[in-house]
Automatic annotation (TrEMBL):
Positions of transmembrane segments: none
Catalytic activity: phosphoenolpyruvate + UDP-N-acetyl-alpha-D-glucosamine = UDP-N-acetyl-3-O-(1-carboxyvinyl)-alpha-D-glucosamine + phosphate
UniProt keywords, alphabetically: Cell cycle, Cell division, Cell shape, Cell wall biogenesis/degradation, Cytoplasm, Peptidoglycan synthesis, Transferase
E.C. number(s) listed in UniProt: 2.5.1.7
Protein's UniProt name: UDP-N-acetylglucosamine 1-carboxyvinyltransferase
Primary localization: cytoplasm
Pathway: Cell wall biogenesis; peptidoglycan biosynthesis
Protein family per UniProt: Belongs to the EPSP synthase family. MurA subfamily.
InterPro entries registered for this protein in UniProt: Enolpyruvate_Tfrase_dom (IPR001986), Enolpyruvate_Tfrase_sf (IPR036968), MurA_subfamily (IPR050068), RNA3'P_cycl/enolpyr_Trfase_a/b (IPR013792)
Subcellular localization(s) per the UniProt record: Cytoplasm
Domain Enolpyruvate transferase: 16-281
Function recorded in the entry: Cell wall formation. Adds enolpyruvyl to UDP-N-acetylglucosamine.
Superkingdom assignment: Bacteria
Length: 438
C-alpha cells in the first residue's frame, strides 16, 4: 500500500469512513476553463502567460496537442502551473492529432488550426463517455463563417472560407457551451465582429469574453446575446491571465465535507460560479456560504430540512451545471426527503453512476435513462466500484467517506483526467484515503 499521488490506471483508491472532515483546502485551476483558455491563446496568436493551469491529464493532452500544432509551450520550472504559449507563423500542412480523440475539448483547436493551416482535420472528440455528444452546432458555426465542413467515420475536416468575412450573426438552437466558445474563437481568428444569440451563459464562456477583453476586444455578454468587436490596430503585446479556480472541484469538496458533517473552508473559487450548488445546500439545510474567494461549509450539528431536492442539470442561465450533479446526488442520499435528479445534457451519466451507487447499497429508482428519484437518508456499505467518468468517480469517492467499511474505487484514469489530485485534497481535510494496488 502507498499514499503516493503517482498512481497508475491499474491502481485503485481505498476510502474508509472516519472523523468529520475539517480544515482548509485550496482548489486547483479549472480544467473546463483552462482548456478553452489555452485554445483562445492559440487563436489570438499572441504570447500568453497563463497561471493557475491545473496539472490534470486533459490539460496535459491539450498542451501536447498545441505543441504538435507548432505552438511553443513552456512550463515554469519553479511553478508548473504557469504556462507560456508562444504564437506560430503559418504552417502548410495540418498536423495529425491522433490524441485529440481522447479529450472532448480538442474541438476548441479548430479556429487556431484554420488560422495557421487554413484547414483543421481532427478525429471525433472523446472525453467522458456520457452518451451521444454531438458537434452539429459547431459545424453550423463554421458554416456561418463560410467554412466548408466534411465528415467521415474517423472525424471531421474544416476548410477555411476563401474570402474575408465582415461580420457574423448566429442564433444557437440551444445553449451549447462548446459551440458558443467555437463561435467566439472563430470570430477571433477572422478578426470580425460576432453577434451570438442564445449563447451559453456559463462562467467558462464569460471567462473567455473577459480574456478577450484583456486582449483588447470589445466584448459583451448577457443571457440573450454575446457580441464581439475586434480591437483597432496597434501593437499586440503579451498577455497574462489566471485560470479561475475549479468550481466543480470546490462543489465536490463541499459535498465531501457535508456528508461527513464536517466544517471546512475551500479556497480559490469564485462565489458566483458555485451559486446553484450553494442553493441546493441551503435547501437541504446544510449551512454553506460562498464568499469572494472561498466556500465555507459548516455541517456540524446541522438541522436538516427534510425538503425534497430537485436537482435537474440545465444549460439555462443560472441553471445547475451538469458536472455538479453526481456529488450532489451522493449528498442527497444522506439527507432526509424524496429527491429528484436529472441530467439530459449528458444522457449517459446516470448509467455510469447509478449502478455503481447501487453496488454500495443505494436504492435509486430510475424513472428514465436521465432521471431518477430516491429517498434519503440511506446507509451505504463499501465495496469495489468503478469510476466510469470524471464526475461519477469523484462522487463515488464522496460516497466512500460515509459508506461502512472500505470503498475501493478503480478507474483512476478517468478521475485524473479532470483533477490533478483530488485524494490529496481530501486527505488534507482528514479523509482516510489510500492508494491500493487493485
Ligand atoms: C470540456 C468541457 O468543458 N466539457 C463540458 C462541456 O461539454 P460539452 O462540450 O459536451 O457541452 P455542450 O454544452 O457544448 O453540449 C451539451 C450537450 O449538447 C449536445 N451537443 C453539443 C454541441 C453540439 O454541437 N451538438 C450537440 O448535440 C451534446 O450532447 C452535449 O453533450 O459542457 C458540459 C455542460 O454543458 C459539461 O458537462 C462538460 O464538462
Ligand atoms: C464531462 C466532462 O468533461 P469532458 O466534456 O471533457 O468529457 C467533465 O469535465 O465532467
Amino acid at each position: 500500500m502507498t499514499t503516493s499521488s503517482a498512481v497508475s490506471a491499474a491502481e485503485a483508491i481505498a476510502i474508509r469512513p472516519g472523523e468529520p472532515l475539517v480544515g482548509t483546502v485550496r482548489v486547483d485551476g479549472s480544467k473546463n476553463a483552462a482548456l478553452p483558455l489555452l485554445a483562445a491563446a492559440a487563436a489570438l496568436s499572441r504570447l500568453v502567460h497563463l497561471s493557475n493551469v491545473p496539472q490534470c491529464q486533459d490539460v496535459r493532452t491539450m498542451l501536447a496537442l498545441l505543441r504538435q500544432c507548432g505552438y511553443g509551450i513552456a512550463r515554469s520550472t519553479t511553478n508548473p502551473e504557469e504556462v507560456v504559449i508562444q504564437p506560430i507563423s503559418a504552417a502548410s500542412e495540418p498536423p495529425e492529432l491522433a490524441d485529440a480523440a481522447s479529450i472532448r475539448a480538442s474541438y476548441y483547436l479548430v479556429p487556431a488550426l484554420l488560422a495557421s493551416c487554413g484547414q483543421a482535420r481532427l478525429p471525433w472528440p472523446g472525453g467522458c463517455p456520457v452518451g451521444e455528444r454531438g458537434m452539429d452546432l459547431h459545424f453550423r458555426v463554421y458554416e456561418a463563417f463560410g467554412d466548408q465542413v466534411l465528415l467521415d467515420s474517423v472525424g471531421y475536416h474544416v476548410h477555411r472560407a476563401a474570402g474575408r468575412t465582415r461580420a457574423v450573426e448566429i442564433t444557437l438552437p440551444f445553449r451549447s457551451r462548446g459551440a458558443s466558445v467555437a463561435a467566439i474563437l472563430r470570430a477571433v481568428v477572422e478578426g470580425c465582429p460576432l453577434t451570438l444569440i442564445q449563447p451559453n451563459a456559463s462562467p467558462e464562456v464569460a471567462e473567455i469574453l473577459a480574456f478577450l477583453r484583456g486582449a483588447g476586444w470589445d466584448t459583451y455578454g448577457d443571457e440573450n446575446v454575446v457580441s464581439l468587436v475586434p480591437p483597432g490596430g496597434g501593437e499586440a503585446g503579451s498577455l497574462a491571465w489566471e485560470v479561475p479556480g475549479d468550481k466543480v472541484e470546490a462543489v465536490t469538496l463541499a459535498c465531501a465535507v457535508a456528508v461527513t458533517r464536517g466544517c471546512a473552508v475551500i479556497k480559490g473559487v469564485h462565489a458566483a460560479d458555485v451559486q446553484p450548488a450553494m442553493e441546493a445546500f441551503a435547501w437541504l439545510g446544510i449551512p454553506a456560504h460562498a464568499g469572494a474567494d472561498t466556500v465555507t461549509v459548516q455541517a456540524i450539528d446541522t438541522q436538516l430540512t427534510g425538503q425534497p431536492l430537485r436537482a435537474i442539470a440545465s444549460l439555462s442561465p443560472g441553471g445547475l451545471d451538469a458536472d455538479f450533479e453526481p456529488s450532489l446526488m451522493v449528498l442527497a442520499l444522506g439527507t432526509p426527503g424524496v429527491h429528484l435528479f436529472g441530467d439530459a445534457i449528458n444522457p449517459g451519466r446516470h448509467g455510469n453512476l447509478i449502478p455503481q451507487l447501487a453496488r454500495l447499497g443505494a436504492a435509486i429508482e430510475q424513472l428514465s435513462a436521465t432521471h431518477c428519484r430516491f429517498s434519503g437518508p440511506q446507509r451505504l456499505v463499501g465495496t469495489r466500484v468503478t469510476a466510469n467518468d470524471i464526475r461519477s468517480g469523484s462522487a463515488l469517492i464522496v460516497a466512500g467517506l460515509t459508506a461502512a467499511g472500505v470503498t475501493t474505487v478503480k478507474g483512476l484514469a478517468q478521475l485524473r483526467r479532470g483533477h490533478a489530485n483530488l485524494p490529496r485534497k481530501l486527505r488534507q481535510l482528514g479523509a482516510d484515503i489510500t492508494v491500493d494496488v487493485a
